[in-house]
Amino acid sequence: MNGIKLHKGDLPANLDLGAIIAVDTEAMGLNPVRDALCVVQISSGDGSAHVVQLNRDYDCPNLKALMADPAVLKIFHFARFDVAMMQKWLGITCAPVWCTKIASKLARTYTDRHGLKDVTREIVGASMDKSQQSSDWGAAELTDQQLHYAASDVLHLHHIREGLLAMLEREGRVELAQACFDFLPVRAELDIKGWEDTDIFAHS
After folding, report:
1. How many CB atoms lie within 10 A of CB 109?
2. Nearest to 168 by CA among 108, 113, 120, 127
3. Residues 11-21 as b or e (16 or more Cβ within 10 Å = b)
4. Which end of the chain is more exposed for a tag (fewer CB within 10 A), N or C?
5. Closest Cα to residue 187, out of 107, 65, 87?
6. What distance in Å separates the CA atoms of residue 121 and residue 105, rounded to the nearest whole number?
7. Choices 3.40.50.2300, 3.90.1150.10, 3.40.50.1820, 3.30.420.10: CATH for 4-192
8. Phi then psi for 148, rounded to 5 degrees?
9. Beta carbons within 10 angstroms of residue 78's beta carbon
10. Omega of the bond prior to 96 within 30 degrees of 0, cis?
11. Residue 67: enclosing H or E segment and its boundaries?
12. Contact criterion met (CB below 8 Å) for 190 and 196
């Protein structure tokens, strides 16, 4: 597990990860209201990852402070889900955020393949193993395979953001993307409160 640091319950105090971090979460399922948040993984972009295995009391003040810190930009892939999980289970508003999935959909309009595996392959030239995506993240002890999977989801996000940002700048869509990112905490709250499948902007 070279470069992967496992923390039980919370991040260490005074851990400086910089002003831009990559973040992902693992949970018991895809329903933020029903399925417990189990793991939060973080990378500062230096090739290493911090994996926080959460207790179900969610007594993790250091992690909460980092996720809510307005001076730290959090990069996600499909931030809508992760931000909703943190709102529901950590009781915080995670901001500011930058979502590589939204950026991909706004910049890579020549494809409909916007999953992390496809975006990583094109932007970074790296392959990802997603075999541990569906596993028991609530287990008392995480396997080496789970830890490596969790780390892999954040290790490339800084470079992906750089690549997508260049494309957004070229296409003149940076401000549009930023407006979408700023709306994500509200979108997450709508998901939690029952409007996850409703387009409130639609005519009917």
Report:
1. 11
2. 108
3. beeeeebeeeb
4. C
5. 87
6. 16
7. 3.30.420.10
8. -65, -40
9. 15
10. yes
11. helix 61-68
12. yes
Are the CB atoms for 83 and 97 separated by under 8 Å?
Answer: yes
Q: Residue 63 region, left (φ>0) first, then alpha (ψ -120 to 50), else beta?
A: alpha
Q: Which two tokens stand for residue 158?
A: 């800084």
Q: Name which of 128, 98, 133, 91 is nearest 21 in CA terms.
A: 98
Q: What is the dihedral of CA 51, 53, 58, 60, to 10 degrees?
A: -40
The band of 134, judged by pLDDT with boundaries at 50, 70 and 90, is: confident
Q: Tell me the pLDDT of the chain averaged across its residues.
A: 96
Determine if the pTM surpasses 0.90: yes
Task: Name 203's Cβ contacts closer than 8 Å, sequence gap at least 6.
Answer: none
The model's pLDDT over 35-70, given as tens digits with 9 standing for 90+, comes to 999 999 999 999 999 999 999 999 999 999 999 999
**Rounded CA gap, 188 and 98, in Å?**
14
Which residue, chain included where needed, has tokens 């992967």?
A: 4
CA–CA gap between residue 56 and residue 149 (Å, rounded): 22
Distance (Å, rounded) from C-alpha 101 to C-alpha 95?
16
Per the CB < 8 A criterion, the answer to whether 61 and 54 are in contact is: no
Between helices 157-171 and 116-123, what is the axis angle to 10°? 80
